[in-house]
């Protein structure tokens, strides 16, 4: 979105667009996701930090790109993200959703004729729960999403693409490849909700069309690993409750621990850490690479009104603008931020009447 005479913002055309609009004094709003916003703030020569953060594994790209510094800002630093472990629970009773039945003709007919059946469910995610397992945190640090089916039957589900293929077959076997029962459920253990590891997004070269280098540094901080371990412990306890036992529930790897973690005693801290380090993946909530903060905060790119510090007429409003990641899914907060940005541009407070006096 571009304020002023510029009507379109296209890949690689932003500079031309600004020039046509009469130079760089025009106002531009970037809301093109955390990778592209960070990349473009870099590449439009509007700012990047002279020295990379200490935890960065990358050398300063300035030497390669020879891009002049206009504003010295930590663009592309401080990337935060949530991770998820995806364990499965086996049960003895035919209570779970089976893909063949769910997607079959009968299911379609039931829905078309009577408006009932699988197609009226919320698409497998039946329940969400959030827990504050780390009492030092002010808000939940682990979130669970319950699926009324097992992931192993739905290998086209997007998040499986990131589970290492080396382990996928053992953890999520098809019916014919295992003696596990055909029924059960799966649980997304989303943690840490307050990650301490920090990633980076940097330019690979000076070429504006080159892909950036994304270094998420997942699980670099031990507290992040511990958060997933805590989440898996609680899930293991949940599976052993009376109600769960009544349907024969057990963690799918409890009878035969995963071969790549078999050196550790099952369900110990060490076993769950091994599980997390091998199987936890991103849940696609990266943010904070152009984070906002106080005018005096040198670790931030944007001021509290989403303006790029030291650059006139440029705002960023997307997941990259977050100061820190939220303690739950981030899409709704991104939309809230966009609404606030719209208010800031128009100079109004459209939710004043909702705010408590
Ligand atoms: C697979 C997946 C699943 C997810 N599931 C969930 C979920 O269940 N719950 C949840 O809360 N969050 C989820 N998220 C995260 C959520 O979608 C993102 O956090 C959110 O969309 C980020 O918003 P954004 O505005 O920063 O970027 P985006 O939503 O990516 O918007 C950026 C927009 O800019 C456009 N754009 C980019 N470059 C240019 C350009 N050069 N010119 C013009 N336009 C451009 C893009 O086409 C896009 O429309 C998921 C993300 C992914 C990838």
Write the layout of secondary structure elements.
Layout lengths: L13 H7 L7 E3 L2 H11 L18 H4 L17 E3 L2 E3 L8 H4 L2 H10 L10 E7 L10 E6 L17 H7 L12 E7 L9 E3 L10 E3 L6 H18 L2 H4 L4 E2 L17 H11 L1 E2 L31 E3 L14 H16 L11
Parallel strand pairs: 1-11
Antiparallel strand pairs: 2-6, 2-10, 3-6, 3-9, 4-5, 5-6, 7-8
Structure write-up:
By secondary structure, the protein is an alpha+beta fold. It has 2 domains: 14-79 and 287-354, FAD/NAD(P)-binding domain, CATH 3.50.50; 83-200 and 216-282, 2-Layer Sandwich (Glucose Oxidase, domain 3). Helix content is 26%, strand content 12%. The protein is built from 10 helices and 11 strands. Strands 2, 3, 4, 5, 6, 9 and 10 form a 7-stranded antiparallel β-sheet that branches. It has a two-stranded parallel ribbon with strand order 1-11. The longest helix is centred in the middle third of the chain and has 18 residues, at 222-239. The chain is globular. Residues 1-25 and 55-64 have low confidence and may be disordered. Flavin-adenine dinucleotide binds next to helix 2 and helix 10.
pLDDT < 50 stretches: 1-25, 55-64
Structural class: alpha+beta
Overall residue-averaged pLDDT value: 84
Which compounds are bound in this model? flavin-adenine dinucleotide
Rg of Cα set? 24 Å
Largest sheet report: 7 strands, antiparallel
Q: How many domain units?
A: 2
- Shape category: globular
CATH class of the largest domain: Alpha Beta
CATH homologous superfamily designation of the largest domain:
Glucose Oxidase, domain 3
């Amino acid at each position: 979105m571009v304020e002023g005479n510029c009507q379109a913002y296209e890949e690689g055309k932003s500079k031309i667009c600004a020039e046509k609009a009469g130079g760089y004094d025009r106002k531009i709003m970037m809301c093109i996701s955390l990778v592209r916003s960070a990349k473009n703030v870099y590449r439009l020569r509007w700012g990047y930090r002279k020295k990379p953060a200490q935890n960065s594994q990358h050398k300063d790209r300035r030497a390669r790109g020879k891009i002049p510094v206009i504003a010295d800002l930590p663009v592309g630093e401080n990337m935060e993200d949530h991770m998820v472990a995806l364990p499965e629970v086996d049960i003895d009773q035919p209570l779970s959703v089976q893909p063949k039945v769910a997607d079959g003709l009968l299911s379609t007919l039931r829905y078309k004729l009577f408006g009932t059946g699988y197609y009226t469910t919320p698409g497998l995610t039946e329940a969400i729960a959030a827990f504050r397992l780390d009492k030092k945190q002010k808000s939940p640090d682990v979130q669970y999403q319950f699926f009324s089916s097992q992931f192993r039957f739905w290998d086209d589900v997007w998040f499986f693409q990131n589970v290492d293929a080396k382990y996928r077959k053992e953890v999520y076997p098809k019916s014919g490849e295992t003696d596990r029962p055909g029924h059960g459920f799966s649980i997304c253990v989303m943690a840490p909700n307050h990650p301490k590891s920090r990633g980076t997004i940097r330019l690979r070269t000076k070429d504006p069309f080159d892909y950036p280098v994304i270094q998420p540094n997942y699980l670099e901080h031990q507290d992040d690993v511990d958060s997933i371990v805590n989440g898996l412990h609680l899930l293991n306890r949940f599976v052993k409750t009376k109600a769960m036992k009544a349907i024969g529930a057990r963690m799918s790897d409890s009878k035969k621990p995963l071969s790549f973690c078999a050196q550790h005693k099952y369900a110990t801290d060490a076993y769950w850490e091994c599980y997390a380090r091998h199987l936890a993946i991103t849940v696609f909530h990266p943010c904070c690479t152009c984070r906002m903060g106080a005018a005096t905060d040198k670790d931030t790119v944007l001021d509290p009104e989403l303006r790029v510090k030291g650059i006139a007429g440029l705002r960023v409003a997307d997941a990259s603008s977050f100061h820190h990641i939220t303690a739950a899914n981030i899409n709704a907060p991104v939309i809230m931020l966009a609404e606030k940005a719209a208010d800031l541009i128009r100079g109004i407070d459209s939710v004043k009447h909702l705010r408590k006096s």
